[in-house]
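FAQ

Q: What does a record look like?
A: Structure on top, sequence underneath. For example:
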C-alpha cells in the first residue's frame, strides 16, 4: 500500500505518517523502484495503535515503550497497566490544577464585577501588586 492509501485508511495525514517514521514509531518501509514507500497490514495496525494511545494522552517517548511491549511475544499486561495508572494519575492532577485555576478566575471575575459597579472603576486585577498565582502556574 502507498502512503496516501494508508493515511486515508487510518485517518492520518501523510505528514503524520512520515513524522512517526522519523521519530522511530514506525519502521522505515521498503520503497518501490520509483521511490514510493510501501506499507503492509502490520504497518497499518501499528499506526492505528499509535493513534489510539496518542489519543489517550501518551507522549511519543511513552508510545515507543508501549510499542516495544507490543512487539514482545508475551505481551505482558502489568507494565501496560502501570503506565495507564500513571497516565490516569497525571490527568487527575491536571484536573485538580484546572479546578484551582477555575476558582481563581471566578474570584478575579467577582472582584472585577464589584469594582465595575463603582464610579470610577479601577481594575483590581491590574492594580494588584502581586497577583495570586494558581497552583498550576507555580
Amino acid at each position: 500500500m502507498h502512503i496516501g492509501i494508508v493515511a486515508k485508511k487510518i485517518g492520518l495525514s501523510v505528514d503524520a505518517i512520515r513524522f512517526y517514521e522519523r521519530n522511530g514509531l514506525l519502521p522505515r518501509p521498503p520503497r518501490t523502484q520509483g521511490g514510493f514507500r510501501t506499507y503492509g497490514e502490520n504497518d497499518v495496525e501499528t499506526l492505528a495503535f499509535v493513534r489510539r494511545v496518542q489519543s489517550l494522552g501518551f507522549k511519543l517517548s511513552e508510545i515507543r515503550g508501549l510499542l516495544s511491549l507490543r512487539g514482545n511475544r508475551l505481551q505482558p499486561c502489568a507494565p501496560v497497566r502501570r503506565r495507564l495508572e500513571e497516565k490516569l494519575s497525571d490527568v487527575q492532577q491536571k484536573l485538580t490544577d484546572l479546578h484551582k485555576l477555575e476558582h481563581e478566575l471566578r474570584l478575579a471575575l467577582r472582584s472585577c464585577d464589584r469594582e465595575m459597579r463603582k464610579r470610577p472603576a479601577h481594575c483590581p486585577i491590574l492594580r494588584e501588586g502581586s497577583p495570586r498565582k494558581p497552583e498550576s502556574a507555580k
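Q: Is there anything notable about this one?
A: The CA atoms of residues 123 and 129 lie 12 Å apart.
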